[in-house]
Amino acid sequence: MPVFEVLVLTLGLTMDVFGVSIAVGLSLPNSTLGQRMRLTWHFALFHFVMPVLGWRAGISVAQLIAQFDHWVAFALLSFVGGRMIREAHHGTQEFTGDPTRGLTMIFLCFATSIDALVLGLSLALLDVAIWHVSVLIGLMAALMTSIGLNTGSRLGRRFQAWAHVVGGTAIIAIGVKIIVEHVVR
Fold first, then answer.
1. pLDDT (tens digit per residue) in 43-63
2. What CA–CA distance (Å, rounded) separates 144 from 181?
3. How many CB atoms lie within 10 A of CB 144?
4. Helix (H, G, I), strand (E, B) or coil at 116
5. What is the per-residue pLDDT for 93?
6. Given a cut of 70, is residue 167 above it in pLDDT?
7. HSE-CB for 96 with a 13 A CA cutoff
8. Which residues neighbour 55 within 8 Å (Cβ) at sequence distance 6 or greater?
9. pLDDT at 119
10. What is the pTM of this model?
11. Average pLDDT in the 164-174 region?
12. Do 79 and 118 contact (CB within 8 A), yes or no?
């Protein structure tokens, strides 16, 4: 997979992390270094592990659906992108307490990384090696978390929705490119 496509995928995939980090930044305007490090570490870890788990699951079914795998990849990427765009219209998550601790943090990590699991499945169907992609997704999640936390209180809720729309659109565009490549062959 070309480096540019991997970067677009990782950026698009981590827009939900960026949006949630903005919301956390809004709810914790005076967050501590510990809170920032905790959330950044966990978002990055989940975004590294989930694509690997999805890829592993995809490897086991790749041979069964080889004739129409590009349609499955397109459908999965469109689902992820569409979900992100739809989330942009639901507004900002409001938090009570410290969202960088306990079940709230685990829920946020899982909820934002489920798309990475689906992406890993798609990459297995496309026979793409997962390790470098997964590392980049984890690093981009850490970067987007840090940026989101640092700018959340300044940018406000409007930017969070915009990030979801841009990320979702980028992921859908890559799905369309996959279909076009297979149809043109």
1. 999 999 999 999 998 888 777
2. 30
3. 29
4. helix
5. 53
6. no
7. 0
8. 120, 121, 123, 124, 130, 134
9. 87
10. 0.73
11. 70
12. yes
- Listed residue (15, 12, 28, 10) closest to 149, CA to CA: 28
- At 39, the pLDDT band (50, 70, 90 cuts) reads very high
Based on the structure, what is the number of domains in the chain? 1
Among 106, 117, 102, 131, CA closest to 47 = 117
For Cα atoms 76, 99, 93, give the angle at the middle one, nearest 5 degrees. Answer: 55
Q: Check residue 5 and give its pLDDT.
A: 84
Under the phi-then-psi rule, with left for phi > 0, alpha for psi from -120 to 50, and beta for the rest, what region is 91?
left
Quick one: pLDDT at residue 83?
Answer: 74
Whole-angstrom distance, CA of residue 22 vs CA of residue 40: 12
Provide the domain limits for residue 144: 3-184
Q: Which residues contact 99 (CB under 8 A, 6 or more apart)?
A: 24, 27, 28, 39, 105, 108
CA separation for the pair 150, 157 (Å, rounded): 14
Residues 6+ apart with CB under 8 A from 102: none
Return d(Cα 128, Cα 55) in angstroms, integer: 9
Under 8 Å between Cβ of 134 and 53: no
For residue 100, CA distances in Å to 137, 155, 160 come to 20, 20, 19
